[in-house]
DNA sequence: TCTGGGGTCCTAGGACCC
DNA sequence: TCTGGGGTCCTAGGACCC
């Protein structure tokens, strides 16, 4: 018997997190918004039934929301991140190989020779996750990741929350009803290309000539064909450190002052560098960008600049200086800015030291300083130790909107301890 | 009035090298 | 007069994911 993959997907994850801490939301239509309260990015089943689409701008659905008393929440990432960790930890219970694919999804690889007990184990795991974390999950099983993904979409609609797409019989039956656009890795563009050559369903794609598909659409699509046939081409991805790390946000209100933009970019630089240190990396370059609002008819301006670093770096104060220099170079007065961001580029492991002894010593001091800051922020709440540049004054005026924010139930201190 | 914030991989083409 | 062929690295852009 071959491999078996499982895809575990938290049902309506952000909504489910809110429901854990406010059970009155159960069985009611609920939506969670993107940063800045712009779009709807998570919907309860009840909200889906009201035909509120994924990614819909909130303002276009105000009427439906009001008339159906849909509960609306701003996104609360500290809460969702913490709940995600709890779910992922629960998944380790069965000691299958695990790949955390996103905040609300994970693949498992089951290497047992005998697959007969799997469904039972998986059903029990699902029950435990619900009991331990309060989050309902759906689990799809299949001989490849792509088939496990499809199985998951069936599991979501099933009573048990688990579906195994193991036999050819089931595969024939299910794939016939899956549109190509709904296959993992295929979206609108590729979908319409496939339709142009008469392939509209997963079954038709599975039965197509792999070589012809490769010629026409490349290796990625060819792999999908094999995956649909049950020949595994995509293994679990090891949790590799990220190669780039970004921090960007749109502002709550248009900004035209350079000072304010610098305040924001400073914040983003602090966050981004923190994330880089968190995965024990250093950046070899940064990219800073600034944008006006493309949905408005205002004068548009959109620019970014890249700086290489002389040596790999994860020191916040150095990155801040560079990011501010970048703003000096790309900022143009006379525009209403809407969004800015910083990307940390070409990350490499921090233990790759430069040979130069002098540099190494520099790292030591900087690394110690950063470690202290990270430790205190971690222990006493993010932002308790910060860098002199961040000005709190007037900040709320441009801060991302989140009118509907729930408490950070699992991570917030009621009172911050005093640090002198 | 109001439209998210992250990431990945692959390919084609140019520069450069022997 | 003749003006190869193959390899690697880098970058920009396109496609996808949640």
Offer a quick outline of the entry.
With 420 residues, this protein is of the alpha+beta class. It has helices at residues 13-21, 45-49, 62-67, 77-91, 118-133, 145-156, 168-175, 188-196, 202-206, 210-217, 219-228, 258-278, 316-330, 357-380, 395-398, and strands spanning 4-10, 30-33, 40-43, 71-73, 97-102, 105-110, 137-142, 162-164, 245-255, 281-292, 302-313, 337-345, 348-349.
Question: Could you characterize the architecture of this molecule?
Answer:
The chain has helices at residues 13-21, 45-49, 62-67, 77-91, 118-133, 145-156, 168-175, 188-196, 202-206, 210-217, 219-228, 258-278, 316-330, 357-380, 395-398, and strands at residues 4-10, 30-33, 40-43, 71-73, 97-102, 105-110, 137-142, 162-164, 245-255, 281-292, 302-313, 337-345, 348-349. The chain is α+β, with helices and mostly antiparallel strands. Among the domains are: 9-94 and 103-144 and 402-420, MutS, DNA mismatch repair protein, domain I; 245-372 and 383-389, DNA polymerase, Y-family, little finger domain (Dna Ligase, domain 1, 2-Layer Sandwich). A 5-stranded mixed beta sheet has the order 5-6-1-7-8. Strands 9, 10, 11, 12 and 13 form a 5-stranded antiparallel beta sheet that branches. A hairpin with a 6-residue loop joins strand 2 (30-33) and strand 3. Helix 4 (77-91) packs antiparallel against helix 5, helix 10 runs antiparallel to helix 11 and helix 12 (258-278) packs antiparallel against helix 13 (316-330). It is globular and about 65 Å long. The chain binds a DNA duplex (18 and 18 nucleotides) through residues 33-39, 41, 55-60, 62, 75, 101-105, 184-187, 189-190, 218-220, 237, 242-250, 293-295, 339, 341, 400-401.
């Amino acid at each position: 018997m071959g491999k078996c993959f499982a895809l575990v997907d938290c049902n309506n994850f952000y909504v489910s997190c809110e429901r854990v801490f406010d059970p009155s939301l159960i069985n009611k239509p609920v939506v969670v918004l993107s940063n800045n309260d712009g779009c709807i990015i998570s919907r309860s089943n009840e909200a889906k039934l009201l035909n509120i689409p994924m990614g819909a701008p909130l303002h276009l659905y105000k009427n439906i929301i009001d008339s159906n008393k849909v509960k609306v929440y701003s996104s609360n990432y500290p809460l969702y991140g913490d709940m995600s960790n709890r779910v992922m930890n629960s998944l380790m219970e069965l000691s299958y190989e695990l790949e955390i694919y996103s905040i609300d999804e994970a693949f498992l690889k089951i290497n047992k020779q005998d697959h007969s007990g799997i469904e039972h184990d998986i059903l029990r795991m699902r029950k435990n996750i619900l009991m331990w974390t309060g989050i309902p999950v759906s689990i799809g099983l299949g001989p490849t990741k792509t088939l496990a993904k499809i199985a998951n979409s069936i599991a979501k609609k099933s009573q048990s929350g688990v579906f195994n797409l193991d036999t050819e019989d089931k595969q024939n039956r299910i794939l016939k009803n899956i549109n190509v656009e709904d296959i993992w890795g295929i979206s609108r563009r590729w979908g319409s290309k496939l339709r142009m050559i008469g392939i509209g369903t997963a079954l038709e794609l599975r039965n197509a000539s792999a070589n012809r598909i490769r010629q026409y659409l490349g290796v990625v699509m060819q792999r999908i064909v094999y995956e649909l046939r049950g020949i595994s081409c995509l293994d679990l991805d090891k949790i590799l450190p990220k190669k780039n790390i970004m921090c960007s946000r749109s502002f709550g209100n248009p900004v035209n002052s350079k000072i304010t933009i610098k305040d924001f970019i400073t914040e983003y630089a602090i966050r981004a560098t923190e994330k880089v240190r968190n995965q024990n990396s250093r950046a070899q370059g940064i990219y800073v960008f600034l944008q006006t609002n493309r949905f408005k008819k205002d004068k548009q301006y959109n620019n970014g600049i890249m700086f290489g670093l002389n040596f790999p770096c994860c020191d916040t104060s150095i990155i801040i200086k560079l990011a501010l220099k970048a703003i000096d170079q790309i900022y143009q007065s006379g525009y209403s800015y809407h969004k800015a961001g910083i990307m940390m580029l070409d990350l490499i492991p921090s233990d790759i030291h430069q040979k130069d002894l002098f540099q190494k010593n520099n790292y030591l001091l900087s690394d110690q300083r950063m470690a202290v800051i990270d430790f205190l922020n971690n222990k006493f709440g993010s932002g308790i130790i910060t860098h002199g540049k961040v000005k709190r004054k007037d900040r709320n005026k441009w801060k991302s909107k989140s009118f509907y924010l729930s408490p950070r139930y699992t991570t917030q201190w009621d009172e911050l301890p005093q640090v002198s």
